[in-house]
Specification:
The structure holds two protein chains of two kinds. By secondary structure, chain A is of the alpha/beta class. Chain A contains 23 helices and eight strands. By secondary structure, chain B is of the alpha/beta class. The longest helix of chain B has 17 residues, at 219-235. Classes of the chains: A alpha/beta, B alpha/beta. At the A-B interface, helix 2, helix 7 and helix 10 of A face helix 4, helix 5, helix 9 and helix 12 of B.
Chain lengths: 468, 327
């Protein structure tokens, strides 16, 4: 089910317009249909989509779009701006009580990731605020939930207060808070059982816990893959508990996460964190402004451009181009490039910002450790070898020496040198291409006469070698 | 009540009635569902108009039925020759219901029963993303199969998530079935391998394998699953007899991506739709059936071990269509 990005769809719907010279209201309607489908596919609630489309249409009917030569881009811009406005511009920090005890209550549906995120939050708070966190295991219903939190506590070396499963959660919380005081813990995170928002008895239990704990922060954990129902869930929890922040979990999935918009729009609860993996340090502060493009499925081009301009000097880039053109590209340049890319963040992160890549990346595993390996190998080359890649390409004994020097297996060094040569050839081939051929490359088709990168098949972790 | 009372009359035996009641109870809270919405939409119009179709689309989308499945459905409905002569929107209702049945059945006989060996071992592998309810579903299905007289073995193949092994062990204890588990962090494939050996030696009928939740875009985790699948294929004739993809009813459009990715590496034979006792309708499974031809086998309707039913299309669709008492 590959969905094209909204920008592609808008281009499609605009294709018919070519030569018309003027955009009419019905053309705008046509575009709005595409916007609507795109948002629905991202799981934005249908009611919100409706209201949103009306807003956007009104703006789009203004002069700017109607007279523009690029109406599609203009519409996209409006959609993006409106989405950003809805999501809120800035990250909202935790409500911390820095002079006393901060109590955080975690709530949510079953399987939304509360227990894991109780651990992640505790870890984050300890690191960020230099605080002393403690966890309370108040999920007495799901088998082994207490056990799960205890294990997480052990992994993090954070104390977990538990009273088994025979005591009422309210009493566990009461005792836990008292215990925290005696032990001088200044942050207490309460993990509660998952519950349906329509389960009145269990919702009352949360209200009771809230009364006892008087939390500074009530965090609702919501699965980022949630569909249309996200609005019901968030509103009911919010109405019952007055939720102060939202934790968007499993955002490392390939969901477009329209639920985030729905929640924000209907309840105004700020989304404060997002879960980005199963490891306990994979918690990130949520940047609402970046979510807009993800929901639109168009990649975060703005951030990419920002990052690139921040880190890459134009003059440098030009110099590099010249060297490439003349075929001078050597290991020093290579190392230099890697360093620049690394400055921009993780490779996967960078690639995912490119429009259309998001979906393709799904099937590619990019390991940033590869960079470290390449750096290690290159660092073990002599200055002469770095300047003149031929030396290594031709001499097995040199490669063997490098392998010993950097502690990486010989085949890795071999792969690197081989691929370096291939890359060089590819780049030189690209230099000589005309625009049409370059377009082909951009679309992933190799034009004739260009060496294909051979992918080695085999077993083991590094099969296929370095893939760039 | 209209349609639903007809449907209720059709169920004769008390057992069937009980089951329908459970569905009703389970789905009760999902009631602000399709039919009331459908009726509201239809009664809001005097004529069949474009706006009516737009509102119908919203009603489908609201139930998380996939966007493209919905758009195709409505488009077909518009072109349906039966609809062409219709002026009274109310007449659309039975046609829509019919078409929903067609959408799922596709002129096939879809059987929700598990494909189990008559003699010899059957292996059931449970897969899905994190937090959808795999472990709980295994417990419920084990409980049901045990009551059907089968000798059951569980394999604690989620060696990654903290507490997952203990969770399944606790269920095994409550249900009274055997379990094979290793320490947390061991290779899940080896757990499954050992369980298969034990199941073969001990004359078990069914082996239910738990796996760690994994997001479908994590390549390494998907490879790990592929390996488990391969081992079962190799060790058990015709195995795995069932690979069940567990989907949370709250899941939106991402359900399609899940179904696609998991069926690429395993032979998904059916879906277990969990948490249908909430307000979500899990309509994405209709899209999953539509796009990937994967049938739904079970629905989860609560946290107890008996809160599971074989999927019944009538119950499901009518359940979606039942009027909400609160409204």
């Amino acid at each position: 089910m590959p969905f094209e990005s909204l920008s592609e769809k808008l281009q499609m719907s605009l294709r018919r317009l070519v030569g018309k010279g003027r955009v009419t209201e019905s053309d705008i309607d046509e575009m709005m249909k595409e916007v609507r489908v795109s948002l629905l596919e991202a799981d934005v609630n249908y009611k919100i989509v409706k209201a949103f489309i009306n807003d956007v249409k009104e703006k789009a009917l203004g002069e700017r779009v109607m007279k523009s030569l690029t109406p599609g881009d203009q519409v996209l811009k409006i959609v993006n701006e409106e989405l950003k406005a809805l999501m809120g511009e800035e990250a909202v920090p935790l409500n911390m009580n820095l002079n006393g005890t901060t109590v955080i209550l975690l709530a949510g549906l079953q399987g939304s990731g509360k227990t894991t995120h109780a651990g992640k939050l505790a870890n984050y708070i300890r690191k960020t605020y230099n605080a002393r966190p403690m966890l309370i295991a108040a999920d007495v219903y799901r088998p082994a939930a207490v056990n799960q939190l205890v294990t997480i506590g052990k992994q993090l070396n954070i104390e977990v207060f538990e009273r088994g499963v025979m005591m009422k959660p309210t009493n566990i919380v009461k005792e836990g808070l008292a215990y925290a005081k005696t032990k001088n813990y200044n942050v207490v995170i309460i993990d509660t059982a998952g519950r349906l928002q329509i389960d009145e008895a269990l919702m009352q239990e949360l209200v009771d816990i809230k009364k006892i704990a008087n939390p500074n922060e009530i965090m609702l954990a919501i699965d980022s893959m949630t569909g249309q129902d996200a609005v019901n869930v968030a509103s009911t929890f919010h109405n019952t508990l007055n939720v102060t922040g939202c934790l968007l979990t499993k955002l490392d999935s390939d969901t477009r996460g329209g639920a985030a918009l729905s929640i924000r729009y209907m309840t105004k609860i700020p989304i404060k964190f997002c879960g980005m993996g199963e490891k306990l340090d994979q918690l990130e502060v949520f940047h609402p402004d970046r979510m807009a493009s993800r929901i639109l499925g168009m990649g975060d081009v703005v951030s990419l451009i920002e990052k690139a301009t921040e880190n890459i000097d134009e003059a440098d880039a030009m110099k590099m181009m010249e060297r490439l053109e003349k075929g001078y590209f050597n290991y020093n340049d290579y190392l230099d490039q890697i360093k620049k890319i690394k400055k921009m963040g993780s490779l996967k992160g960078i690639l995912s910002m490119i429009p259309g890549m998001g979906q393709q990346l799904k099937n590619i595993d990019i390991d940033d450790k590869q960079f470290a390996i390449i750096e290690a190998i290159v660092s073990s080359m002599t200055k002469e070898e770095r300047k003149n890649p031929e030396l290594l390409a031709k001499s097995q004994s040199r490669r063997e020496r490098v392998s010993r020097g950097c502690g990486r297996p010989y085949h890795e060094v071999n792969n690197l040198t081989r691929q370096f040569e291939q890359m060089k050839k590819q780049m030189q081939a690209m230099m000589g291409m005309d625009e049409r051929e370059l377009n082909k490359v951009a679309k992933g088709q190799m034009p004739n006469g260009m060496p294909r990168q051979k992918v080695k098949k085999g077993k083991g972790k590094n099969r296929g070698g370095f893939r760039f | 009540m209209g349609l639903f009372s007809i449907f209720k009359k059709k169920k004769q035996t008390s057992e069937a009635l009980q089951k329908a009641n459970k569905y009703q109870l389970g789905m009760k809270k999902t009631r602000s569902g399709l039919l009331s919405k459908l009726k509201n939409v239809l009664s809001g119009y005097d004529q069949v108009t474009e706006d009516l179709f737009d509102d119908l689309t919203d009603a489908f989308i609201m139930a998380d039925i996939g966007v493209s499945t919905t758009l195709d459905f409505i488009e077909e409905l518009k072109e349906d020759e039966r609809v062409e002569g219709i002026h009274d929107p109310k007449e659309l209702q039975p046609i829509i219901v019919d078409k929903m049945f067609e959408l799922y059945l596709k002129n096939e006989i879809v059987d929700a029963n598990l494909n189990l060996e008559k003699d010899g071992l059957s292996v059931l592998l449970f897969v899905g993303v994190n937090g959808v309810g795999k472990t709980t579903s295994i417990a419920k299905i084990a409980y049901r199969l045990k009551n059907e007289g089968k000798k059951i073995l569980l394999a604690a193949g989620d060696t990654f998530r903290a507490g997952a092994i203990e969770q399944l062990e606790e269920w095994a204890r409550r249900i009274g079935v055997d379990i094979v588990s290793k320490t947390s962090g061991s290779d899940p494939t080896s757990v499954i391998f050992d369980a298969i050996q034990k199941a073969k030696a001990g004359g078990y009928d069914c082996l239910l394998c738990d796996t760690a939740g994994r997001l479908q875009n994590k390549v390494n985790l998907m490879k790990e699953l592929e390996k488990m699948h391969r081992v079962i294929e190799k060790e058990v004739p015709n195995g795995p007899q069932e690979v069940l993809l567990v989907i949370d009813a709250t899941t939106g459009q991402n359900g399609l991506s899940q179904a696609e990715a998991f069926s690429e590496i395993t032979n998904i034979s059916g879906v277990v739709l969990t948490k249908l006792d909430g307000t979500s309708k899990g309509g994405i499974v209709l899209a999953i059936r539509d796009k990937f031809n994967i049938p739904i086998k079970f629905v989860g309707l609560g946290e107890g071990m008996e809160d599971l039913e074989y999927f019944d299309l009538e119950d499901y669709i009518y359940g979606l269509f039942v009027e909400n008492d609160d409204e």
